[in-house]
Protein 1
Amino acid sequence: MRLVLVTETFLPHVDGIVTRLTQTVRNLRNLGDEVLIIAPWRKDSPPEFAGARILTIPSVPLPQYPDVRLGMPILPWTIQQHIDRFKPDLVHVASPAFTGLGAILWARAHKIPLVESYHVQYANYVEQYNLKLFVPFAWWYTRQVHNRAVLNLATSLPMVRDLRAHGIKEARLWRPGVDAERFTPAKYSAAMRERLSGGKPGDFLIVCVARLAVEKGIERLVPVLKALPGVRLALVGDGPARDRLQQAFAGLPVQFMGMLHGDDLAAAYASADVFCLPSSTETLGLVALEAMASGVPAVVANRGGLPDLVIDNQTGYLFDPDDPTDLTTRILILMDDAIKRREMALTARQHAERFSWKQTTKQLRGYYQQVLQGTVGQLEVADESGKDASLPPCESEVD
């Protein structure tokens, strides 16, 4: 197939969306597909990735968050000419907000099948930034954009249900994946644990990998550190809320590690006692899956897409983000019970091994083929267990 992938964010920016898209492109290329990527311009944008050409469109930095750039909502004529020459079979727009609008208009004008995928809870972000009056508008806008597509993909079952509940048509599950060879318990590093713990490797170590932004709810960890002596926190990542978080955690045992990549990131996961993601706005939360693949129990908010990844009391805990004491209680249980923590670590690794990017991309490719064949309306709706009879089974189901 010849596929145009349009995204609001791409390399060298790093987040869960970029991780999924880079893995998808790599696997599509391995399966023999041609891919053309369109993304907002950055001064350090690469010209290609995994043999797929990258075209950039003019963009401006997001106010107060310059690492995120907003692409213009109309495709420049030169890029339209590139797409015409590429002769795509299908256009896939990931998390359409600004950049994707021009591609949606182009695909509909040229009668090219259009797939869209939902990766950001814009309505929840609006609420997190104290703009609740705009939540209805955010959902209206989401409907207007996504209902232009033949098929809409969400990365977790809670998000599939959320889209359907808000009137988005043909919403289906796009399974998660993880690189279980990169993220593995074997990447444990005493030297990394020394760094993460601020020179106190014998203390109980929580690692959080996240963008340092308001919507990530990282300040929910402040009362945990105040209530539990001997607990240390390592924050891996960067973002616009770093100064605010440094003030919130002042005097507490916290290491701000900045961005980590590759083997350093894998070692950070594997060297923790517990992984925690306090965010209540995740459409999925791939970092939790990477932590579990690293053999680390994950304590995450029982909200958004995270309950689709973490099995409560088996691979970690789901805490109530509306209860200010629940997160502390869950951390304390794992702190006091080393046997339970080891059992969860083993189960977490086994659970994560079910998900591979290869299988996830094959599922996506199957969706593409159904779109091209005009059979999307025949797809069955995933039930509450996460099964979907219209999809190929994941690796753990092939026995």
Protein 2
Amino acid sequence: MLERSPTSLPRMPRPGSRRGVLLVNLGTPDAPETREVRRYLREFLSDPRVLDMSALGRWLLLNLVILPRRPKASAEAYRKIWTDDGSPLLVQGRALARFVQTALGPDVPVVLAMRYGNPSIAAGLDDLRGRGVDRVCVFPLYPHYSSASTGSTLELVYRLAGERWNTPFLDVVPPFFDHPGMIAAFAAIGRKVIDDLRPDHVLFSFHGLPERQIRKSDESGAHCLASAGCCDRIVDANRNCYRAQCFATARGIAGGLELEATRWSVSFQSRLGRTPWIQPFTDVVIPELAAKGVRRVAVFSPAFVADCLETLEEIGIRAREQFHTAGGEDLRLVPSLNTHALWVKTVIDLIRLNGGGV
């Protein structure tokens, strides 16, 4: 009798074994009030992957500079975008989880978690374990890799998973900055805004990072930020470079919209402190565009897959007011992916590709 090849044996599920999905975004305070924002910022900025400096320097900066001043201003900003159902980031995250749950079916539990704040990653892992999940597909909802987002999230997931006697088996969705589905979803959303606004210029504004973090991602030690064209394409040296991945996303969306090279550009927002951050800066570019005679601008924020403080308030309110003050006519935020059908399909495809489907 011929033996069957091991690859031809039927795959039999283990009794009690179950797959699940943990969607993870960065986080949000529980309420748009100073106390809750201070608690959130303390957790967020105490992370050595976010403020990558000595422990003493981080403590001094956080407790003597940031926390005495920033929570009140941030709470005021959050109040401008807060909804009856809560933080937009959390509301959109829950909606996305429901869509994904419906598509994957009841046999694959889908749980939303936040790296900072609530619902926590620890609670998410406990929830999945309580539903009999042994194999977890971890989906960091950050298109681009940075140690401060993806790296921090995975470090915590690995640590929490390792603390359990029965450790879950983990699959991870990698950064998806150039995934055709995500690019198509952003282009589809943006096309509606562009057709209506007829902008003179399209700006792709990404969250910023300190230059030192970009250089630390370059394992060759000689490529990132070493030349004006270092981010023109992805090569081995910058494969984990946040800035290079952002430029790749912008090129993809611009290509999908068939934008001429002179009609779009890239900038970086949300810088903090006095150390050098990656450039050009969004709040510098916007008045420069107005000074050049640009009257109408459409702004994408493709570092975020859900609308949040950085999109709705920083771009949709503050940047718009800045553009008007500088003489511009209209600056319009392109909505984020949120629960657009093409994005939901992309999320499901990435989950199934990375071990989270059935």
